[in-house]
Amino acid sequence: MIKRKIVSVLIILIAFVLQTTVFQALKLADVVPNLLLILTVCYGYLRGRTSGLIVGLFCGLMLDMQYGSVIGLYAFICMTIGFVIGFCQKIYFTDSLLLPALLIFGSDFIYGIYYYVTEFLVRARTNFGFYFLHRILPEMVYTVIVGILVYRFVAMTERLLNKKREEV
User: What's the CA gap between 116 and 124, in Å, rounded?
Assistant: First the structure.
């Protein structure tokens, strides 16, 4: 049990470092894939609502520390997404890649809408079409492509940790 938590924390820290350093140099269409949102979706989907909520809280707080103008905005968004995605754990099988890709796509869309409403719409910047085409859509596509790879890695890690736990 402790090993699972340590591995999760390490994966989150590695994703945060990659998102804030390496992927900043690999920007496509001036967007970076949201690795911490991907991890929130992965852990919510693989472990359930509580893990999705907790991982979303930590990932969101790390995003708040790095990018946020208001502490807690990213944390709220990621917690909400992680909790809602956690409902899918009992309903769907975790063997397919289609559903996680759709969940990452939808989560990034919701994330973009939340961010638009709280950062731009409140300041009377109402050009949603421009923001959607130049920010939300490219980030969704880039995040899904990277998200499939990250999901496979996280799912493989979870299987290995569960297998070792069953052996003990």
Answer: 11
